[in-house]
Amino acid sequence: MSDFEITRRRYAAIGFAQELGALAMRYYLNRESLAVSMKGAQDFLTVADGAVEQRFREMIADAFPGDGVVGEEAGGANAENLWIIDPIDGTSNFARDNPHWCVSIGFLRRGVPEAGVIFAPVMNELYEAQRGQGARRNGKTIHPSGETDIGRATIEIGWSSRRPHEDYIGLARATFEAGAQAKRSASGALGVCYAADGRTDGYMELHINAWDVAAGVIIAREAGAAVSNFFSGDALTTGNPILVATPALAPRLAAMMGLEAGELLTG
Question: What is the CA radius of gyration of the chain?
Fold first, then answer.
């Protein structure tokens, strides 16, 4: 696939994300329409999730009919040209009228992240990147904070129901004991972007699914953050840990997570 074809998909994804964000906003502003249900403990689902993902699948079928799609709600299979969507990342926030949620769209070519777009409609912030071309928020180039002192750092720690609570508590304790501040905002996609954009100094989660970070990992790498090798192994179907951080802090945070510092990716 040529660079032109990847660029064409990136620009298409920007348009898709904005249209899907507008669709999600119509539900968000009409609370009675959400029909909130639960897929599991602290695992929210609204009718907007399904509607946004279905519309995205229609867009891809029309614009790139040979490409595959994997989504949080309807699944899918691997393909040479693969789109991965989280229709609403931060659904618990979305369901509770909290503006910290987004639409996340990643594009992979033969298993390698090539482009990503993340759009937070309430805040009107759009992150996007393409491999080798940098990362931007609303058109402005972004970079991680550059923080080198763990005692000055703010680290977001994502929570996963697929790992024991004790593991999360232990990671939070290690973070505080290292001298850092810890927080949680309940959107992995935005958490990764904020670490890439210097709004925090790192994001780590002991297990996360591919649709949460398929867009974020390419945005973070292109911004210049250190990123764990998320798409190693069978990440597409089983997920993996994720770490995104300013390069100076990444090795220490990786050790706290039980990851090998030598496996971190940059650029």
Answer: 17
For residue 33, what pLDDT band results from cuts at 50, 70 and 90?
low
**Which class is domain 150-266?**
alpha beta
Q: What is the pLDDT of residues 82-110, one digit of tens each?
A: 999 999 999 889 988 999 999 999 999 99
Both tokens assigned to 160: 């996963």
DSSP string, the chain: --HHHHHHHHHHHHHHHHHHHHHHHHHHT-GGG---EEEETTEEE-HHHHHHHHHHHHHHHHH-TT-EEEETTTB----SEEEEEEEEESHHHHHTT-S--EEEEEEEETTEEEEEEEEETTTTEEEEEETTS-EEETTEE--------GGG-EEEEE--TTS-HHHHHHHHHHHHHTT-EEE--S-HHHHHHHHHTTSSSEEEEEEE-HHHHHHHHHHHHHHT-EE--TTSTTHHHH-EEEEEE-TTTHHHHHHHHT--GGG-EE-
pLDDT for the residue numbered 73: 82
Per-residue pLDDT tens digits for 162-178: 899 999 999 999 999 99
Which CATH number does the domain 3-141 belong to among 3.40.1180.10, 3.40.630.30, 2.70.50.60, 3.30.540.10? 3.30.540.10
Domain ranges, ordered by start, for the chain: 3-141, 150-266
pTM of structure: 0.94
